[in-house]
Every structure is written in C-alpha cells, then in structure tokens.
C-alpha cells in the first residue's frame, strides 16, 4: 500500500461524512461519491457539529456524483461503502462500484453497512478482491445536505474479513484500515469473526429499528407507551434472534448480550434521552429504509432453519408495508 492511502468513499451521508474526516486526519486521500448532497458538498463541503471532533467544516479531496465519474487510471486501496444496504436493488451495489474495481483485484471492498447476509452477493461479483465487513456504532444525523449532527462520543467500527478464514493479505488490509480509523480519532477493532459482532448489533437493529419506524417513537419513549407490552415486544424479538443465532452457530449472541443492549434504551427511557434509530429518521424524512437487509434477511433465514419468529415476522410485514407505501409516494 502507498504511504498515502487512497480511499473511495461510496455514499457520504452522516456516517460517511464523519469517516471522511477521520480518514483525512489519518493522512488519506479521499474521493467522495456524493449523490443527493453533491451540489452542496462541492460548493460548501461538510459542516460537522460534534462532541468528539468539535465544530468543523471540511471538503473531500475529490468529489464525484458516481463511481463512473472517477478517473479511469485511479487506483484505490479501499472502496468504503457507507451507503444504506438495499439487497436486490437495481442497479446492484456491485454494479455501482464496479468501475473502480475493473482490473483491480488488490482493492479492498469494505461493506460498512447494517444487516446480516449482506456480503455474499458482492463477494460473488468480485471473488479476488478482499471483502471486509464492518459494523458501525456512530449516532449521527445529516440534518440537511452536508450538515452533520454528531452529539455523542460513541464512534466504534468493528471490522473483519469475509469470510472469516480469508487469506493473510485480506486480513492485512483489514488491520491497516483499523489502524487508519484509530489514527483519525475514532475507535476501530479488528475481529477474527466479524459475524459475531454483526449478529450482536442485529439484536438492537432488528428490534428497535422497525418498531420505532412503525410507532414513530424514539427507543426510550416507546418503552413507556404500553407497559409491560412494549418492553415484552422488544425483548421477545431479541429472544427470537438469540434462538436463530444459536441454530446457525453464532456464538455469544445470547440472553446476556440482549440484556446489555436493552439496558441502553431503558436508561434513555428513564432519563428522557431517547434516540431515533436510522429507520425512524428515514421514515420522518420520507426516505427508503433498510427493512430487507436488517429484518427481511433475518426472517427468511429463520424460515430456512425452521426457527419460529412470530413477533419479528409481524413487524417485518408491517414495516415492509410502510416501505412500499413510501416507495409508491416517491414514484408519483
């Protein structure tokens, strides 16, 4: 890898904008693929209001509307995908990032996205490239084009190869990116098996995200809406995920892990500091949300392994209805 790593950042919303800053602070050259916020970012850059990094304005080194606009001779060490995950969408993610990867088997593809079972399609399209899978804890919001609000210190990227037994060169690419993220002022951790971290986050994502999107409540507020029913719904979904994780052989995703994660929302309920999960933010702003990557993939996997998920299946059907209604409204 060159002394100054080159990163192509695909999907630069709130998470991508913060990673842009971190990577630049770590000495990287970053090309940002900005879609909906391109015009504002090209003219004004990003404006970040942050506890961790302070209040700063900054620009990508290069900015494009699509990967196809990147210079044909550009070689990137990483294509870092922080766009939302929409399995089955057309064009596919693989198609959107392909121009940067043709004849570049050494470029690592980093899927810093929500959900489970999201890596297989990209890995099939780019069998030689290192595939890195990332789990993000970074509570931030893009309140307007290029305007990022990041009110907490939490900034964790958990990273590992896909599959876990990938070649040593792929492991080295993961290790290097962890180093860069830490040098840039975040916190990143390397995992031997990233799927454990991915499923642990699923406990929170598959329960709180669709529930909040459907109820229009923050996580903390929801717990007070119908005691004890609200609590029992969230906990019941978490237990369905624990049962599925056990069936498919994911260690560490157990009742204790669920209890720890539910305590976060319980504390927010008690202090009146509930957070809007990403799906609720998307619904409020009329955007598509990640119902398939997070919930759909989970309930389909459960059916495949004959694990009963009555609560999550119900929430999935309702959330998918809301998703399709939003999509219809967009197309009119």
UniProtKB/TrEMBL annotation:
<feature type="domain" description="Ketopantoate reductase N-terminal">
    <location>
        <begin position="7"/>
        <end position="150"/>
    </location>
</feature>
<dbReference type="InterPro" id="IPR051402">
    <property type="entry name" value="KPR-Related"/>
</dbReference>
<comment type="function">
    <text>Catalyzes the NADPH-dependent reduction of ketopantoate into pantoic acid.</text>
</comment>
<dbReference type="Pfam" id="PF02558">
    <property type="entry name" value="ApbA"/>
</dbReference>
<dbReference type="Pfam" id="PF08546">
    <property type="entry name" value="ApbA_C"/>
</dbReference>
<keyword id="KW-0521">NADP</keyword>
<comment type="similarity">
    <text>Belongs to the ketopantoate reductase family.</text>
</comment>
<dbReference type="InterPro" id="IPR008927">
    <property type="entry name" value="6-PGluconate_DH-like_C_sf"/>
</dbReference>
<dbReference type="InterPro" id="IPR003710">
    <property type="entry name" value="ApbA"/>
</dbReference>
<feature type="domain" description="Ketopantoate reductase C-terminal">
    <location>
        <begin position="193"/>
        <end position="321"/>
    </location>
</feature>
<dbReference type="InterPro" id="IPR036291">
    <property type="entry name" value="NAD(P)-bd_dom_sf"/>
</dbReference>
<dbReference type="GO" id="GO:0005737">
    <property type="term" value="C:cytoplasm"/>
</dbReference>
<dbReference type="InterPro" id="IPR013328">
    <property type="entry name" value="6PGD_dom2"/>
</dbReference>
<dbReference type="GO" id="GO:0015940">
    <property type="term" value="P:pantothenate biosynthetic process"/>
</dbReference>
<dbReference type="InterPro" id="IPR013332">
    <property type="entry name" value="KPR_N"/>
</dbReference>
<dbReference type="InterPro" id="IPR013752">
    <property type="entry name" value="KPA_reductase"/>
</dbReference>
<dbReference type="GO" id="GO:0008677">
    <property type="term" value="F:2-dehydropantoate 2-reductase activity"/>
</dbReference>
<feature type="signal peptide">
    <location>
        <begin position="1"/>
        <end position="17"/>
    </location>
</feature>
<protein>
    <recommendedName>
        <fullName>2-dehydropantoate 2-reductase</fullName>
        <ecNumber>1.1.1.169</ecNumber>
    </recommendedName>
</protein>
<keyword id="KW-0732">Signal</keyword>
<keyword id="KW-0560">Oxidoreductase</keyword>
